[in-house]
Design brief:
CATH class: Alpha Beta
Number of helices: 5
Number of domains: 1
Helix content: 25-40%
Oligomer: single chain
Shape: globular
Radius of gyration: 37 Å
Distance between the termini: 109 Å
Strand content: 15-25%
CATH architecture: 3-Layer(aba) Sandwich
Amino acid sequence: MGTRLRDPFGIALVAATLLFLASCAPAAELDLEQVESPEETAAPVEQVPESVTYVPPEDCQSLLPRDMQQDLMAQGISLLRGPGSPSEEPIYVDGESPEETVGGLSCFFGIAGDEESVLSIVLSAAPVDPAMRPDIIADLLAQNLNVGQTTDGTGLTYWIWGDEAIVSALHNELFEDAWYSALIQPGGRPAYDQAVELVAGMRQVTTQ
């Protein structure tokens, strides 16, 4: 019996078939816990203070939010002198306030009918000219006030608690575009805290 010749084309076909089947076989399952994927964490975003623009108040009647005006009135405190008040008398008999000298306004609040009362509140707001800003800072530093920064980091503060006997409570906030101050007599920590709140109120209604 003769030797059978093998079909070379058949062998090739079988080999190709086996290779195809092997490639279609399911791959070994991956352990997903062992595959490291980049963490999808949000990049930290730096908080940028909101940009606002100073809008000069028309008069003392528009210098504070309505609720703050009502709070003062509930304490018997009303606007006595300054633009929009019933009086034409100046805030200070010996001249303009520092804020008035740079184009701003000042407003005197006290107990109606008793302007000689120990209680007095002087609120001021003024625009800030970049050319005059260094002079304003120099004048505030000359008063030996404490220096700080506003809570939003956009302005400087110059302040003193004062006391209930002689020194008034004073809080200044100086921004690039505006300057605010609240001077309260008698002074002390409660008066100073009120001054901070009043300045915040002035800033609120004079910016957009």
